[in-house]
Write a structure and sequence with these properties.
- This protein is mainly beta and 128 residues long.
- It has no helices and 12 strands.
- The protein has a 4-stranded antiparallel sheet with strand order 1-2-3-4, with no helix packed on it. The protein has a 4-stranded antiparallel sheet with strand order 5-6-10-9, with no helix packed on it. It has a 4-stranded antiparallel sheet with strand order 8-7-11-12, with no helix packed on it.
- Strand 1 and strand 2 form a beta hairpin.
Length: 128
């Protein structure tokens, strides 16, 4: 009868989002709960390879019906958004992003890939 909470994320507007094993993605609202099913997403985790990297890394994820409308934001270890050089390509439901190390200092970075109904987070390390 209860869904298991798999992950909790906060968006830039301060909204709290829960990923569950049964209901999908849920935006917490004290007055109501908005359920957005994500059962058609085959990749709920996002990774980059190689990681760590010194030249470039590739982020790949499958997001069905994403309408080719994804946004990538990269944050440094202090939570500041950084501008990086990257390229997004689409092939069917596959989203591939190549991030180039130019402009990044050595260190840990967190990235967020968002599309219409999903927000996925990952991290990578730059070692030049």
């Amino acid at each position: 009868p209860y869904d298991l909470v798999l992950d909790i994320n906060f968006d830039v507007s301060g909204n709290v989002w829960y990923t569950t094993n049964g209901a999908g993605l849920i935006k917490y609202d004290p007055d109501s709960v908005l359920n957005i099913p994500i059962t058609n997403i085959t990749s709920k985790r996002i990774n980059s390879y190689p990681n760590p990297f010194n030249d470039k890394t590739t982020i790949s994820v499958v997001i069905p019906n994403n309408n080719y409308n994804c946004t990538l934001k990269i944050y440094d270890s202090f939570g500041r958004e950084v501008n990086g050089i990257y390229s997004i390509s689409y092939k069917g439901d596959q989203v591939n992003i190549i991030v180039f190390a130019d402009g990044f200092a050595d260190g840990l970075y967190v990235y967020r890939l968002t599309s219409e109904h999903v927000s996925l987070n990952g991290k990578f390390i730059v070692e030049k």
